[in-house]
Amino acid sequence: MNIYLIGFMGTGKTTVGMALAARTGWTFIDMDQEIARREGRAIPDIFAQSGEAYFREMESDLLKELTSLDRLLVTTGGGVVLRPENRDLMKQTGFIVSLSADKESIKRRVSNQTGRPLLSGGELDQKIDRLLEERKGLYEDADIQIDTSARDVSDIVDEILAHPLFPAR
Ligand SMILES: Nc1ncnc2c1ncn2[C@@H]1O[C@H](COP(=O)(O)OP(=O)(O)O)[C@@H](O)[C@H]1O
Ligand SMILES: O=C(O)C1=C[C@@H](OP(=O)(O)O)[C@@H](O)[C@H](O)C1
Ligand SMILES: [Mg+2]
Q: Does 116 contact ligand 2 (Cβ within 6 A)?
C-alpha cells in the first residue's frame, strides 16, 4: 500500500508530500525528481529535447514500478492522471489524496518557480485555464480531497493525518 498525492500544478503536492513523509516515516518519492535523476536532466530539458510523449512514457513506467513497492509516499506530477491506466494503478495500490487550489493561488505559486514546461512562455492565465479545462474531473477520484488555497502546509498535513482511513498513522 502506498499513498499518492495528485492534483494540478501548484496545488502543493511536492511540498505537502515531503512534510507528510516526515510525519509518517514512509519513504518519500517525488516522481518528477526521480525522473530527472534517472535522466540526468531537468524536467524542462526532457520536454524540450525529447517531447512530452517521451516524458509521459517515463512517468507511466515509473508509476508501474512504484506500484510494486510498499509504504511509499508518492508525489505525482500534475499530468499523471491523463492516462486512465495510471489512475487505475494508483487506485488499486494505494490511498489517494487529491489537492486543489483556486486559480489565483495556483498562479501565485507557479509564478514563484521555474521548471514547469507546460506553463512557460506566453500568457500564464490562458495556459492554466486551458489545462484546467482539459483536465476537468480527472482529480476527483480520490480518498480525500483538500483545497489548499490560503492554508498552511502543516494544517493540510494535520487534516490528512486525521482522516479515519489514512493508512500511515
Ligand atoms: N499551502 C501552501 N501555501 C503557500 N504556498 C504553498 C503551499 N503549498 C505549496 N506552496 C508553494 O507553492 C509552490 C508550488 O508547490 P509544489 O509543492 O511544488 O506544488 P506541486 O508539486 O503541486 O506542483 C512552491 O513554491 C511551494 O512552496
Ligand atoms: O501537470 C503536468 O502535466 C506537469 C506537472 C509537473 O509536476 P507538478 O504538478 O509537481 O508541477 C511535471 O510533472 C511536468 O512539468 C508536467
Ligand atoms: Mg510537484
A: yes
